[in-house]
Amino acid sequence: MNIIRYPKKEEWTGIIERPHMDVSSLNATVTAILDDVKTRGDKAIIEYEERFDHAQLASLTVTEEEMNEAEKLVSVNLKDAITLAHHNIKVFHESQRFDCRKVETQPGVTCWQKSVAIERVGLYIPGGTAPLFSTVLMLATPAKIAGCKDIILCTPPDRSGRVNPAILMAAKVAGVSHIFKAGGVQAIGAMAYGTESIPKVYKIFGPGNQYVMAAKQQVSLHDVAIDMPAGPSEVCVIADETANACFVAADLLSQAEHGTDSQVMMITTSEQMTSKVKAEIGRQLDMLPRKDIAAKTLENSRLILVDNIQDAIDLSNAYAPEHLIIQTDNYEDVAEKITNAGSVFLGKYACESAGDYASGTNHTLPTHGYAAAYSGVNLDSYCRKITFQHITAEGVRRIGPAVETMAAAESLDAHKNAMTVRMKSLEG
């Protein structure tokens, strides 16, 4: 890891810069696959599954028989863990239900909102070396609570044409409606356009590699909404002299093993902590099965020494991390000053892994600095807010003149007239 000592504020822009990948070369590939799926539907997806996932499929649909078989393959311990995590995620997201109330803005003018679930949503769950069954819980659970009628899940199969059993188990627990064997760009295209087997959805959720992210961004321009723009995973730790160096190192490595394009960062007020954490990272790294991935990630990562805790806070807010862990003596005071972060973990025992799996908060979060403008996935992500208004004769008298004046000022005479005819009807 790169150690940066007492950087000047004018140097912060360079420090918080993420690794950049040139995606221009893959956009043409993504566009071609999307167009093919749009044109040929299931046939195109089956061909791409054989080409990219090396699976020969007769059907894209996961059957009830496959669901039952998967349940038998999942260990009791893992079932219990999935059930616990689902419970906590459900409890947390149920607390986010919208409380509608009517507001009288003027006598005779009443306005309100109604929260309406998106009827059909699509969830993309990556497969590969680390099938993210936890993401099924994170995406499907709030969708079910929100009241989405159809929850469509796409995930790549293995070479034998089977979906990871834990993914299927999590989908059953969380209430997914339909599951399909489709990965990568072709899955995004299927949910965006619809095929013979896979329904078109109104919004797509879920992480993926650079091809998947590019596909989501492309289809979001014209065809379907997406959860948020996203990049590689990241974590920032704010630590003072009271932090546990072993814990900090473990937290940094937990993100570093995600992928070589991830980034981890520690901001500390303690020179001694910098040395301790670096030593711990070296010790723990050697024990990781994904050592090579984590080591590559660390090349883009930083240990930063600052003068005081306020500088640490300001630098973190400028970075706007996906995950922020605060291991300081006064972590609650520090947390109050955090304005840009996807999810914040307080105290030495709150590891980022807890939020990834089972504490209850959602782990689908804005990355790449988007936490400065975007929220992580929550109940509102699956809902639309429809506004209503009711205006009485008294309400017309109250706001009519203002409406006429404003419409006239914008030279929109028909707008003005729509109010004028109502005001005249009340004369006499």
Automatic annotation (TrEMBL):
Keywords: Amino-acid biosynthesis, Histidine biosynthesis, Metal-binding, NAD, Oxidoreductase, Zinc. It catalyses: L-histidinol + 2 NAD(+) + H2O = L-histidine + 2 NADH + 3 H(+). It holds the Pfam family Histidinol_dh. PROSITE patterns: HISOL_DEHYDROGENASE (PS00611). Binds 1 zinc ion per subunit. The keyword Cytoplasm does not apply. One of its GO terms (molecular function) is histidinol dehydrogenase activity. The active site is at E322, H323. NAD(+) binds at Y124, Q186, N209. Its EC number is 1.1.1.23. SUPFAM superfamilies: ALDH-like (SSF53720). It is an enzyme of class 1 (oxidoreductase). The keyword Amino-acid biosynthesis applies. Its cofactor is Zn(2+). Pathway: Amino-acid biosynthesis; L-histidine biosynthesis; L-histidine from 5-phospho-alpha-D-ribose 1-diphosphate: step 9/9. Substrate binds at S233, Q255, H258, H323, D356, E410, H415. Zn(2+) binds at Q255, H258, D356, H415. Catalyzes the sequential NAD-dependent oxidations of L-histidinol to L-histidinaldehyde and then to L-histidine. NCBIfam families: hisD. HAMAP family: HisD. Belongs to the histidinol dehydrogenase family. This is Histidinol dehydrogenase.
